[in-house]
Design a protein that fits this description.
homodimer; 186 residues; mainly alpha; 77% helix; elongated; DNA-binding
DNA sequence: GTCTATATCGCGATAGAC
DNA sequence: GTCTATCGCGATATAGAC
């Protein structure tokens, strides 16, 4: 058996995803996940703090994308358009991970405990974005509002995209921003 | 000891709030809460599905306020201004429950498990609002975006209000909407 | 109301990896 | 040899079944 932590971690992720899809989140025990991954239950908890977290590795990648995207926008750009540009930058990555995202969303949507975790992750992301905007020189007040609103728009666009996957995500994003501009500007 | 369910429930709430404040959420067991409330642990779980929910009774009241407020706005009013008016209607109630809200926010902010629950509650509220807007005749798409954005603005205003409690909440709300209008409209 | 499953975590020992 | 991941065992508390 390979001793490298990475492999064990990857096998645990894979095993968890399969089992959760097969039997539903609630019907699966951490012991079963560990068994399928070929490690002990104790090892599971060394890699992941609880039964849920194993599903949110993709979310960690997302935080990386957001950070990079915002860093790629010149500091002179004001918070609102800066975040707007950052969103355009991460849209292609989001579009690529569409399949995996859908599969995950299906499990999460049906399980209250997972929806809680997902909601918290999103809140953390918004807080992260607000912090990054403040680092760029934005007032805390404005940074908070911009992060909250624009991330909300992106999340909304992703939802409408899932409902109409034929259209590119970027189109949905543009449409959502235009709609909001018309509503909030008046 | 009164056997009426309501009283027991209220004592459980009180006991939980005290114990969580005294020792922190993690250091308190449901058995201790039940003991202080003078009931058995089993009774705790009859009233609340888990260790966290006992803290979110206020949130339930909030959903009631929101529903009533939206119902009080004539159906002819378009989604965005309707929600805007509904927010103005619930601001006084929010302002009254300011103290309790602050005490609760302090516990929640320091405990990841509670922040998860709070984030999920907020997401549920947004979904509820979107549903109500759809019932009023709004397209699902627009309803989702309006609920998300305007509730976000309100949440933002509550945050800035907590940071500057001298100013009335309504002032913070108006300011936040004006700020968003300037940002998103351009 | 009792009983039990199971998620979570602490600790000392062991065994691959470098 | 020194890490560091894993193992094996045990303890506790939440949550749900009967």
């Amino acid at each position: 058996m390979p001793r490298s932590g990475k492999e064990a971690r990857a096998r645990l992720e894979q095993a968890a995803l399969e089992l959760y899809l097969e039997h539903g989140f609630d019907a699966v025990t951490t012991a079963e996940i560990a068994a399928r991954a070929g490690v002990t239950e104790r090892t599971y908890f060394r890699h992941f703090p609880d039964k849920r977290e194993v599903l949110f590795e993709g979310e960690r990648r997302l935080t990386g994308w957001v950070t990079e995207a915002l860093a790629a926008v010149p500091d002179e750009v004001a918070p609102w358009p800066a975040m707007r540009r950052a969103i355009d930058l991460i849209v292609p990555s989001l579009e690529e991970s569409g399949r995996a995202g859908n599969r995950l969303a299906a499990i999460v949507a049906t399980t209250p405990a997972l929806r809680e975790r997902a909601a918290a992750k999103e809140a953390n992301l918004v807080a992260l974005v607000a912090g990054l905007l403040v680092e760029r020189g934005a007032p805390a007040d404005e940074a908070d509002l911009v992060a909250l609103t624009e991330w909300g728009v992106l999340a909304h666009a992703i939802r409408t995209w899932r409902a109409a996957p034929g259209t590119p995500l970027q189109r949905h994003v543009d449409r959502a921003f235009a709609l909001l501009g018309g509503l909030a500007g008046a």
